[in-house]
Specification:
By secondary structure, this protein is mostly helical. Helix content is 79%, strand content 0%. The chain has a domain of 35 residues. It contains two helices and no strands. The chain is elongated and about 50 Å long.
Length: 52
């Protein structure tokens, strides 16, 4: 069996890599949206979110 410390370090490393990947993916999506027209987001979704 593996030590608890090894498991915790692996989890921490995976979490940091996952966070970095998500942040980079969001940046890429923002760049893609900025290149397109910014007024493509429908306003119906905002109204639905406000109801909740």
């Amino acid at each position: 069996m593996m030590d608890v410390e090894m498991i915790l370090t692996l989890v921490a490393v995976i979490a940091t890599i996952f966070k970095n990947f998500i942040s980079a993916w969001k940046d890429i999506n923002d760049i893609k949206l900025s290149t397109r027209k910014r007024k493509r987001r429908p306003r119906r979704l905002k109204r639905r979110h406000l109801k909740f």
